[in-house]
Design a protein that fits this description.
single chain; mainly alpha
Length: 305
Amino acid sequence: MDAPQLRYRRLLVPLLAWVFGLGQRQWIDGSYISVEMAFVALGVYWCARLLARRGRSPVWGVLFVAVPATLASFDRMLVDGALTALFAGFWLNCEEEKWGRVWVIAMLASLTRETGLFLPAALIVDQLLRRNWRRAAWFASSSLPALIWYGYLAEVLPRDGAYSVLTFPAWALLRRLFWLRPIALLDPRGRALVFVTDFLAVLGLIVSLVLAAIWLSKCRRGPVTLCVGFFAALTLILGAHIMIEPFAFGRPTSPLLLWLLVEAVSSQAWIALAPPLLVSLGVGVVFISPLWTVVKGVLGYRPPV
């Protein structure tokens, strides 16, 4: 396994798969897929409730399926969809002021992915700004299981090799607009499609950041807006290694993109749906080839001789 400390930190999804698979190797695959799909269902449910609170149809909750992290999880069973779902639950329960649930969700998010620590961090900063030291300490305790786990891994596993994840703010993002990644496709039409969707995805991410900055400046400060701000800051400093393709940069930025999608529907700013969905398009293009293969098989397509 490459970067074992980094990979093993992302404990929650594989742990749940092991628990629900009763530790039996032959059941792990089915259990893992079930856990992934359960998080998709939770993400849709929590988004539907968020939008219903704003007077919109709960059907709009299906937008969660279009978020890059969800699409990537369908393809590769990654943990990013689970984290984005937990962010949706965090958002809903913060609005409903169900702080016990918020604590639990923040704790689970911290064990899902390193960026899940943004959730307890937002809660802590919010309470420190309110000078509520005791409540800040309580929210800080939600990150303790993850920090203990990280410390244990640092003791028992070799250190990960150096790799570039972060860089100077906005440098990799802007550079990516003027750089075409190599595509191992012989079909010129396939290469053209990937180049176009790549460019649109990067452009969509940049416009999403601008939109987020504008909307955050108009919102009342709270744990959710602070958390979104952290994800926006992360987006700005993602390194070239992450910015190489939408499949890589679309996943860690998905909570930010989900927030924009929900806010766009809430305020009926329909044009604002486009930038996040352009990032999703860049991720979703990977499904075109296998789907086309299936369609050709169903239609009995035969290439010309």
